[in-house]
Amino acid sequence: MDIKQIQELIKFVSRSGVNEVAIEQEDFKITIKTNQTPTVVHATVPAPVVTSAIPAAAAPQVVAAPAASAPAAEDTSKYITIKSPMIGTFYRSSSPDKPLFVNVGDEVSTGKVICIIEAMKLFNEIESEVSGRIVKVLVDNASPVEYDQPLFLVEPI
Q1: DSSP letters spanning the chain
Q2: pLDDT of 108-123, one tens digit each?
Q3: Do 102 and 151 lie in a common domain?
Q4: Do residues 58 and 114 both lie within one domain?
């Protein structure tokens, strides 16, 4: 497991509300525990990775409070938020070689497929519950998502 994977795991755990996650492989063991305040990481790995895992523990604290989120929160009041109906992995297209379901600026109508969420090896097509224009995609492709996590901002038509 490399540092990027550890950082993604920490972000996922901090967003999910899970209190503890433990992963153990042949020569690597990591336990991530969360409280209501900071995330604590305990890792038993070779020395170079332990050194780089320490800054990763601080990453969720920095990511959780970006300076630009306050103005964005004010602007989004006129938009409708499409949220994830389940926990899984978010995909913007049915496969890497296929076009994206929706892009910023596209108009969607009720019932149009806007993304796929993979949960336990099942690919679930997520349909829009509103009609409007996609203003922002809030999740990166192939990222883990939680139940009720905002996915898209839509400007009603």
Answers
A1: --HHHHHHHHHHHHHHT-SEEEEE-SS-EEEEEE-SS-EEEEEE--HHHHHHHHHHHHHHHHHTS-TTHHHHHHHGGGSEEEE-SSSEEEESSSSTTSPPS--TT-EE-TT-EEEEEEETTEEEEEEPSS-EEEEEE-S-TTEEE-TT-EEEEEEE-
A2: 999 999 999 999 889 9
A3: yes
A4: no
